[in-house]
Design a protein that fits this description.
- The protein has 347 residues and is an alpha+beta fold.
- The chain is built from eleven helices and eight strands.
- It has a five-stranded antiparallel sheet with strand order 1-2-3-5-4, covered by helices on one side. Strands 6-7-8 form a three-stranded antiparallel sheet.
- A hairpin with a 4-residue loop joins strand 2 and strand 3.
- Helix 1 packs antiparallel against helix 4, helix 3 packs antiparallel against helix 6 and helix 6 packs across helix 8.
- The longest helix is centred in the C-terminal third of the chain and has 22 residues.
- The chain is elongated and about 165 Å long.
- It starts with 10 loop residues before the first strand and ends with a helix.
- Its EC number is 2.7.11.1.
- Pfam families: Pkinase.
- Keywords: ATP-binding, Kinase, Nucleotide-binding, Serine/threonine-protein kinase, Transferase.
- One of its GO terms (molecular function) is kinase activity.
C-alpha cells in the first residue's frame, strides 16, 4: 500500500494535532526543506473571489514578523487544496493551562502584556484578528507565548465562513459588544476579546457562558465582573479593556504598557470639555513680599526727619557788606576808602 499523496506535492501529512469547525491541523514534513511544520487544511472550498481574498490575506500574514506570531511559510488557494503551512509550536494552549485552575495575577499580566504587544504589531500593519480566544494562544515549552490563527477568521471567511450579508461568524464567547450588535468592528474588538481572555485566566471561569446567542446577548445586558481582589494595576487594565464603548478602550500598545506596569494610569479616550479659553485663563496671583515696602518706608522716614531738622534751624546771618572796590589798590586809593567807611558808619 503506497503512501498518501503529498499535500501540494511537497508536504507529507502526519497525525492530526488539532481540529476546529473549519479545518484540521496536522503535523507535517516539508519534504523539500526536511523540516517539521504545521499544516492547517480547510475542509471548505471557495469560489474564485474567495480564493483570491484568501491568497491576499495569506501573503499579508506571511509578511509579518514578530516573536509572538506563528510564522506562515506557505499557502495554497487552489480549488481542491486550501491550506496554510505554518511554524510548528510544540507546547500547550492557554485553554489547556487554565482548564484546571486560574493563573496567578502576575502570570496573567505577563501573558497579557505579551499578547497585547503582538496585537499592537499586527494592528499597526492593518490586520484585525477577530477571534482572540484561549485556544488560539500557544505556550511553547520554553514559555514563549504566541498568538496563533492571526487573521484565520478572515481567511476562513474566504473559505465560505461568511454570510451573504458579509457578517463574520466568530466565537460568540469572546465577541465584543459592537460585533454582537452589528456595529462597526475595528481594532478595539481585539482588545475587548483579549480582556475577556485575561479575565477568564485570572478567575478560572468563562465570563459569558451559554449557547452562542445567549452568550453573545448577555454582554449587551451587563458589563464583565472584574474581581476587586485583583491587583490594582491588573484590575484597572481589565476594566479599561472591556469597556462597552470601544472609544473608551485603550489601544493594544497602551494595554501592553498597562499590563507590564510601564504605565500606571489608563489613558483617557474622550477629551474633557474646556472650561475656559486660553484668552480668559485666570492664573493664581503670586504672593507679594513685604520686604520692598519695608525698605522704601524706612527710607521715606529718614528723608522726612532730615527735612524737619532742616526747617527748624535758624536762618544763617547775612555776610557783612564790604566796602566797594574802587580804584587801583594802594595808598592812592586810601582817601576814597576812608570816605566810604565813614558813609557806612553814618548809616
Amino acid at each position: 500500500m503506497g503512501e498518501a499523496p503529498l499535500l501540494g506535492g511537497r508536504y507529507r501529512l502526519g497525525a492530526c494535532i488539532g481540529s476546529g469547525g473549519m479545518a484540521d491541523v496536522h503535523r507535517a514534513m516539508d519534504t523539500r526543506l526536511q523540516r517539521v511544520v504545521a499544516a492547517k487544511v480547510f475542509r471548505s472550498g471557495a469560489d474564485a473571489a474567495g480564493r483570491e481574498r484568501f491568497a491576499e490575506e495569506a501573503r499579508t500574514l506571511a509578511g509579518l514578523s514578530h516573536p509572538g506570531l506563528v510564522t506562515v511559510h506557505d499557502f495554497s488557494s487552489d480549488p481542491d487544496e486550501l491550506y496554510l503551512i505554518m511554524e510548528l509550536v510544540e507546547g500547550r494552549t492557554l485553554a489547556d493551562e487554565i482548564r484546571t485552575a486560574p493563573l496567578p495575577p502576575q502570570r496573567v499580566a505577563e501573558i497579557g502584556s505579551r499578547l497585547a504587544d503582538v496585537l499592537a504589531h499586527v494592528h499597526h500593519n492593518g490586520i484585525l484578528h477577530r477571534d482572540v480566544k484561549p485556544s488560539n494562544v500557544l505556550i511553547a515549552g520554553d514559555d514563549s507565548v504566541y498568538l496563533a490563527d492571526f487573521g484565520i477568521s478572515r481567511l476562513a471567511a474566504a473559505a465560505g465562513r461568511i454570510t451573504g450579508s458579509g457578517v463574520l461568524i466568530g466565537t460568540a464567547t469572546y465577541m465584543s459588544p459592537e460585533q454582537v450588535s452589528g456595529g462597526e468592528v475595528g481594532f478595539p474588538a481585539d482588545v475587548y476579546a483579549l480582556g475577556l481572555v485575561l479575565l477568564e485566566s485570572a478567575t478560572g471561569r468563562v465570563e459569558y457562558p451559554g449557547s452562542g446567542a445567549e452568550s453573545a446577548v448577555s454582554r449587551l445586558v451587563r458589563a464583565p465582573e472584574v474581581p476587586l481582589e485583583l491587583p490594582s494595576g491588573l484590575h484597572r487594565a481589565l476594566l479599561a479593556m472591556t469597556a462597552t464603548d470601544p472609544a473608551r478602550r485603550p489601544d493594544a500598545a497602551e494595554c501592553a504598557d498597562l499590563l507590564a506596569g510601564r504605565s500606571t494610569e489608563v489613558i483617557p479616550r474622550i477629551h474633557a470639555p474646556q472650561t475656559a479659553s486660553p484668552r480668559t485663563e485666570v492664573l493664581p496671583k503670586p504672593r507679594r513680599s513685604l520686604k520692598p515696602w519695608l525698605i522704601s518706608g524706612g527710607g521715606f522716614a529718614v528723608l522726612l526727619a532730615a527735612l524737619i531738622v532742616y526747617l527748624a534751624l535758624p536762618p544763617a546771618p547775612d555776610p557783612p557788606a564790604l566796602p566797594p572796590v574802587s580804584g587801583p589798590p594802594g595808598v592812592a586809593r586810601l582817601p576814597e576808602d576812608l570816605e566810604n567807611l565813614e558813609g557806612l558808619i553814618r548809616e
